Amino acid sequence: DTAVSQTPKYLVTQMGNDKSIKCEQNLGHDTMYWYKQDSKKFLKIMFSYNNKELIINETVPNRFSPKSPDKAHLNLHINSLELGDSAVYFCASSQRPGLEEEQYFGPGTRLTVT
Amino acid sequence: AQKVTQAQTEISVVEKEDVTLDCVYETRDTTYYLFWYKQPPSGELVFLIRRNSFDEQNEISGRYSWNFQKSTSSFNFTITASQVVDSAVYFCALTLSMDTGRRALTFGSGTRLQVQP
After folding, report:
1. Rounded distance, CA A102 to CA B1, Å?
2. Rounded Cα gap, residues A90 and B24, in angstroms
3. Using CB atoms and an 8 Å cut-off, which of residues 31-90 of chain A contact chain B?
4. FRET partner for B51 with CA separation of 20 to 30 A, picked from A80, A109, B90, B94?
5. For position B81, what pLDDT does the model report?
6. Which residue in B44, B97, B103 is closest to A107 by CB distance?
7. Bridge-partner residues for B47, per DSSP?
8. Inter-chain residue contact A99 with B96, CB threshold 8 Å
9. Complete edge-to-edge strand list for the sheet that includes strand A19-25
């Protein structure tokens, strides 16, 4: 039973394309997150949603748009992909909002922009 | 501003050795939380521990132990009798309390631990 799942696991695409990454959690958590991990393993939070409402929006280009159709899903849509968007993107969830909560991470999506 | 420093980029030990991963943090707040996460070669991040700033008690969980010292702003992680399965990148992270109204979660740059058989 996968707690936090992401699709696809790998995504290779060309500059300028638009792509989406999907995330689902079956833990019954209220809060979900997106993180970016660059090639040097540096992790940075991008967004957080609590019960479908955006609560954290870090300094991220507006080409990145999260969408939460329900509290179990948080998708990440990226427009006009650039080379610098190549990274591993992690989805996570926690029972309650608040960055002090323990978070459960998905397996990551490795995005490669060529 | 807050900052987490993991000065050890990579550590290599032989199985059964003890190893300590260092984490030093900076924050002006008195209420904060510290975490350790493990990222094995498979890629996912696994929560290991959370500690709040008012709880300086050290914690032991099996072969893992954590030493939190506010006086030196450190939250170090020790693995006793390391095993090959401990090979991973370990991240220390810091966040402020929700009560501060500020939201920031800062990860250290990670320490890659390689345990040789």
Report:
1. 22
2. 25
3. 40-45, 48, 55-56, 88, 90
4. A109
5. 97
6. B44
7. B37
8. yes
9. A4-7, A19-25, A73-78, A64-70
Residues of B in contact with A103 (CB under 8 A): 45, 47
d(CA B117, CA B84): 6
Whole-number percent of chain B with pLDDT over 70 = 92
Kindly state the tokens that stand for A101: 């909560």
* B63-93: pLDDT as tens digits: 999 999 999 999 999 999 999 999 999 999 9
Q: E-strand spans in chain B?
A: 3-5, 10-14, 19-21, 24-26, 32-39, 46-52, 59-61, 64-69, 74-79, 88-96, 105-107, 111-116
Chain A residues whose CB is inside 8 A of the B93 CB are 43
- In order of A48, A54, A58, A93, B3, the CA distances from A101 in angstroms are 12, 17, 18, 9, 19
Cα dist from A87 to A11, A41, B91, whole Å: 10, 9, 17
Cα A46 to Cα A77: distance, rounded to the nearest angstrom: 12
Q: For residue B98, give the 3-state DSSP assignment.
A: helix
In the numeric block, which tokens belong to residue A76? 């990440």
Beta bridge partners, B55, equal: none
